[in-house]
Amino acid sequence: xxxxxxxxxxxFSPVPLFMNFLGVLIGMVxxxxxxxGSVVAVSICLPFTFxxxxxxxxxxxxxxxxxxxxxxxxxxxxxxxPGTPQSACTALDGYPLAKQGKGGIAIGWxxxxxxxxxxFSCLVLVLxxxxxxxxxxxxxxxxxxxxxxxxxxxxxxxxxxxxxxGLASSMIGLLLACVxxxxxxxDMRFTFGLFALHSGMDVVPVIVxxxxxxxxIDRAERMLHEAPIEVIRSNIVKMPRLREWKGRVxxxxxxxxxxxxxxxxxxxxxxxxxxxxxxxxRRTSPRREAFGTGExxxxxxxxxxxxxxxxxxxxxxxxxxxPGDPVTAIMLATFVLHGITPGVRLMQDNPTIVYxxxxxxxxxxxxxxxxxxxxxxxxxxxxxxxxxxxMGIVAVLCVLGSYGTRGNINDVTVTVCVGIAAYLLxxxxxxxxxxxxxxxxxxxxxxxxxxMALYRGDQxxxxxxMSSPIALCLFGVTTLLLFLPHLQRRRQKERREESxxxxxxxxKGKRG
Length: 512
Hints:
Strand order of the largest sheet: 1-2
Strand content: under 5%
Largest sheet: 2 strands, antiparallel
Number of strands: 2
Low-confidence stretches: none
Mean pLDDT: 76
Oligomer: single chain
Shape: globular
Distance between the termini: 82 Å
Number of helices: 21
């Protein structure tokens, strides 16, 4: 108890508290700039932590981590340009809701779901870090394969009315994920002799091209043939009222659980969590028919999941010294720079630091509300610019963001080419979410398949699969998710037929 009180006292002292809020604000602003994101934001702030005390440094970086994860959704809602890859799902319904004149309400849903998901994962981090981290280590290639396969089932639910075009779009995403050197054999695939493609395609340039650049091209074409479109502006954050949460709390909790669990698995990340959570909400939400038109359930699912990853990713990082995602890898480097050894003895050797991290992460999530209000107001003034000038600025930020992720000029070429291709596909009626889902999950899917071939050894595939209860459960859930829509449609058809028969019987009775 003494360690907890000491951590509370230190976190709520002026300097760490200011660093926490400053980190959230910086993360919000950088996250809202298209193409940058959490890794870039934390990397920018890392050099400034060298002269700080360890807990001050962690308060700053944790604030940046939480703020950048949520900040990317501001641009996604207001200009349909995801500031970070994990906010791509938010744009699917956040932007349509903002187009209805409810930009402040859309951002309110974003902030509320983000705060809940982040605090939920913090509680899991505090209560179950050692035991949950050890369970995550039981996930080998077969279990990871089962989890990703379950994620692929969402392609059918995000393909709209044309499943064939959705599958074709997902195949394009898988092909893009295969560009570059094979992770196992080193063979070059789909490079067409271009050295620039040897390292593959990074997720940030592809997402920026698919969402941001294709939207800019589409708007530019509409500006030539239509009257200028009023840019969505909002300078306030309207938090949802309690009665508006009726029927949504279950989805909020489920999305938070998905995000926390995926965050605990090393190397997955918030983008995967957001897509899997969104697809699950698209499949099970009682308002799933309204998805794509500004439905808050969609925003809640994506935001609660991608922010829950922040706490979940710290579980293996603090308990085992295994980074849950690239951002926590940078934070582990911060530990080492300040003379702290992460791993199984971190709790015993530095309990005040560990409890301080727990508390600072909770405070950072609570500070997202005022920080988002400030960032949204800044965007309000920015969006007063004429639309052509604004789209030009967004295009420049897209290019800078694509280049700044890896410092590779070839990523700019990828963004431009993918943006033009996405625009043409959109004109042809091909949905873009299946392509992004396949592109994000493709590399991990391929890696798990290759690792399974090595791990099974002399076992048959049947005995290898039957040896993992976790994988069997995941395969069972996947099968259920594939057949459940067909069963639901069949049941609805039977109910319609029964109601029609009842109507006919009533009409015959009246005539008789």
